[in-house]
Amino acid sequence: MAILTASGRAALAAAIKQQTLHLALGEGDPVWDTTRAVSTAFDADDLIALGFTYLEEVRVTSLDESTTYTRDVDYSVDAREGMIRRLSGSAIPEQGDVTVHFKVGHPPEPIDRTALLREVGRRVVDEVHFVAVDAQGEIVVPTGRYRLSTTPTNHLFIRVRFDFEDAATSTIREQGLFVGTQTDPSLPPGQKYFVPSQVVEPGILLLLQHSVPIVRQPSTRETFEFVVTF
User: Is residue 133 within 8 Å of residue 168, measured between CB atoms?
Assistant: First the structure.
């Protein structure tokens, strides 16, 4: 059986490193991170379908909120599917009315996505470096610690600094690393940040990341750092 060797992965990383990369910012789905309260009754099968998925911080109360029911005693939660089930012996009356309080979370990043949801702009990546895994490394990202490497590896460290006015006042919930972006050739030379109308060909989405909401402000800069592993 053929395998992709470590040196082959490093060669892929080296090929990507030679290209111009862009980090795009997207607003994602506006429903993400919102807090909801749905008042309804359990159906004949002791279920409530909330119409939202990937729930967080679920709490079920009586309609007047005078009673808070106990999770896994009075009801169970299928957070991924957005389903509440009344349990046997529950203090909740059969087909009783309740209020379900919850926060809508982010779904996992889908592997088949090719674009961001509601992209607001993208910027040319400032730095791309080979790095190697190192428990004492000076580079710390959510995936671990790394050190800079002078020889090609299968890990690329990416750093992008957005300027004050880039995507100012937007709420950012997604970041995407693109390779092969083509921008309007009539734009001024040296322009680094591009809104969607200035992008002729978005290129290939290499990496997708969901994040907590980042509210951009014209008084601040944002720096994004991560490691892409091939």
Answer: no
